[in-house]
């Protein structure tokens, strides 16, 4: 009898422990999901910031001014009469003109007026004989930026600095809808060695289910199995995702997949740069490039980290071979991150004011716009 009681007590103890562990895991999963949802729902933008545009997909609303709120920040944006960030632009001065063409990282989502890296450059010694213009629009991919460039060349830049976001710029050029925005956009395809514009004019219609289901991660992994089946099951939960990050994946296999897929993306992008260079040189200017990492670049053994570093290597090599000046910000920003500087908003992901200052400091001594 005593032995039977001992067995029952042992089983009771085991069941109690298992139930307790399950309850703890369920509560932890709920807490993680709630926290993630709270971060996402905390974001709001005053109405009217973006307007539909049949040529570009969307544009900023000239004269708009409003607030952008997030768990990480509350900031103010101002759009000038030309549809770009900041005060009215004056292109007629005698100073050298440097145009920055980019997306939300260059526009400065998450920082106030006067806190973007073009602003910091203008207020530094680098701005003594040079005017820096922030001509960037949140969400724009390189195809939209190339179309926009045609509107900007009448202002005759001495140097066009094209800022390429390593996180998704070369992914977005594949599609008629960007991965992280709801509007459609024009895009190019390579027809032999020539660029052919598709989805133009851009129809005013909702993002289709096919593209709604896509993410940056799914676009990177397209056709590649990152995990075995049992790890895929874990990936459906917040806890499982964290377990997978500890277990890891075959990084070499992923890198090989990314490098192979990048070949066509880079070829398409280089065709765009060839067209842009002809346009810019036709107005007496030159082009240079900045490779802008996202916060994922600095997370080791992650899909974004592998992708962004692979993209930086491929672009840097190809662009330098074509004679362009290129600054890859990743390695230099990594040194600052290792010194515990807060360069990126921890949840929202864009550069902080400290991050913009760091970028301005790196670019000020880069020689990108020195006369050749």
Could you characterize what this model shows?
- The protein has 372 residues and is an alpha/beta fold.
- It has two domains: 1-41; 94-364, SGNH hydrolase (Rossmann fold, 3-Layer(aba) Sandwich).
- 44% of the residues lie in helices and 16% in strands.
- It has helices at residues 2-41, 104-107, 117-122, 142-152, 169-172, 209-212, 216-221, 229-234, 238-247, 251-282, 303-321, 329-338, 353-364, and strands at residues 44-45, 50-53, 57-60, 65-70, 73-78, 96-101, 130-134, 159-165, 187-191, 194-198, 286-292, 325-328.
- The strands form four sheets. Strands 7-6-8-11-12 form a five-stranded parallel sheet. A three-stranded antiparallel sheet has the order 1-4-5.
- α11 links the parallel β11 and β12.
- α4 packs parallel to α10 and α12 crosses α13 (353-364).
- The longest helix has 40 residues, at 2-41.
- Mean pLDDT is 89; it is low at 24-33.
Give a topology summary:
Elements: H1 2-41, E1 44-45, E2 50-53, E3 57-60, E4 65-70, E5 73-78, E6 96-101, H2 104-107, H3 117-122, E7 130-134, H4 142-152, E8 159-165, H5 169-172, E9 187-191, E10 194-198, H6 209-212, H7 216-221, H8 229-234, H9 238-247, H10 251-282, E11 286-292, H11 303-321, E12 325-328, H12 329-338, H13 353-364
Parallel strand pairs: 6-7, 6-8, 8-11, 11-12
Antiparallel strand pairs: 1-4, 2-3, 4-5, 9-10
Helix pairs in contact: 4-10, 10-11, 12-13
Mean pLDDT, as a whole number?
89
Write down the secondary-structure element order: HEEEEEEHHEHEHEEHHHHHEHEHH
CATH level-4 homologous superfamily of the largest domain: SGNH hydrolase
The CATH level-2 architecture of the largest domain is identified as 3-Layer(aba) Sandwich
- The proportion of residues in beta strands is 15-25%
